[in-house]
Design goal:
CATH topology of the largest domain: Rieske Iron-sulfur Protein
Radius of gyration: 35 Å
CATH architecture of the largest domain: 3-layer Sandwich
Largest sheet: 4 strands, antiparallel
Strand content: 5-15%
Order of helices and strands: EEEHHHHHHEEHEEEEEEEE
CATH class of the largest domain: Mainly Beta
Helix content: 25-40%
CATH superfamily of the largest domain: Rieske [2Fe-2S] iron-sulphur domain
Distance between the termini: 84 Å
């Protein structure tokens, strides 16, 4: 056995002792070109040699396109026939049917396209030598010829079933996106309704979700209540109204409160109430830090100071949470003095910010 410290040289391939392959002529010069290994031999598929197998594959592709078309039709029907409604059950059913239809439409179309490409279209590799690209008549003629050859290889020209299935599914699939968009065009664009909620003078603050009225004496310092207006369930569109009227109420030591002069009568003995709808994108703000009096939005970490008018301390929110002015009635129950003084929730185009 002999050892060599330098590279081992054999022809035009140099292999150092470490095993790394280096090409050259042994003198440090790279060769002008490498031999073309060529294409591996083509292996025909079963559908290429067996007519029965080809027909079976065509039927499978057509079936997948048909599933896509049925999924699209089913989603459109569900969109109009099974609206979300106002109950949890109806919302779940609507979402289930829409999601199932969309899945079948997209999966069927994608699976059909892949199955078609792998089993029906030509899988013979073609080699084109590189050449300067010129925009002359001959080049355009060659391009048309290549496209024609590709069309012939795909089999769409001589397989009417596939052509019809493709056209039908392709024509229907866009409806899965277009129908919901068109349906929203005629929707409710009245942003003015965000200026008012169910809160009004004398409306009692009640616990969410039980609806039990809250006595001021039962609210201890540091406690937090999720609040809804009394009689919320009596509203015809109570879910939409709740989404606007939800409130977080906290009791602090009155000495910890910093209140603007025009809002000093909006709290009651250290009890303050603010909208739970984040002024960034409308997420529910409900994470309260008792020691710091900070209120955190879980979506994008906007942080508000409950002790100082719910002003923004951190995050993308652009303005404080709207405050609900409160007091107590003759029985000691907490009530609203009025509705919010400003629209709740995120900013929109009719607001300056």
């Amino acid at each position: 056995m002999s050892t060599h410290e330098g590279p081992q040289v054999s022809g035009e391939v140099t292999r150092p002792a470490g095993g790394e392959l280096v090409t050259g002529d042994g003198e440090g010069q790279l060769p002008d070109r490498f031999p073309n290994p060529g294409l591996p031999p083509h292996r025909p598929r079963l559908a290429d040699t067996d007519p029965a197998a080809e027909r079976r594959v065509v039927r499978q592709v057509a079936l997948l396109f048909g599933i896509s078309a049925l999924g699209t039709i089913g989603m459109v029907v569900a969109y109009f026939a099974v609206p979300p409604g106002e109950t949890i059950g109806s919302m779940r059913l609507s979402n289930l049917l829409l999601g199932l239809g969309l899945f079948l439409a997209m999966f069927g179309f994608g699976a059909a396209a892949i199955h078609w490409a792998k089993t029906v279209m030509s899988d013979v590799e073609h080699v084109e030598q590189r050449h300067p690209q010129r925009s002359d008549p001959q080049t355009r003629s060659d391009a048309v010829a290549v496209l024609s050859e590709g069309t012939a290889d795909s089999g769409i020209g001589r397989r009417g079933v596939l052509k019809g299935a493709l056209v039908g599914a392709l024509a229907l699939v866009p409806l899965t996106i277009a129908v919901p968009l068109v349906g929203e065009v005629g929707g409710d664009w009245n942003v003015g309704k965000f200026r008012n909620t169910l809160w009004a003078r004398g409306k009692r603050l009640t616990k969410d979700p039980s609806g039990e009225p809250i006595r001021a004496a039962d609210v201890t310092i540091g406690s937090v209540f999720h609040v809804i207006p009394e009689g919320l369930r009596d509203s015809e569109h109570w879910i939409e109204e709740k989404a606007k009227a939800v409130v977080l109420m906290v009791r602090l030591d009155p000495s910890d409160l910093t209140e603007a002069p025009n809002r000093r009568d909006w709290s009651y003995e250290g009890i303050v109430a603010y909208s739970k709808i984040c002024t960034h994108v409308g997420c529910p703000v409900a994470l309260y830090e008792q020691q710091t009096h900070h209120l955190l939005c879980p979506c994008h970490q906007s942080t508000f100071d409950v002790a100082d008018g719910a002003k923004v301390l951190f995050g993308p929110a652009s303005r404080p949470l709207p405050q609900l002015p409160i007091t107590v009635d003759d029985e000691g129950y907490l009530i609203a003095q009025d509705d919010f003084a400003e629209p709740i929730g995120p900013s929109y185009w009719e607001r300056l910010k």
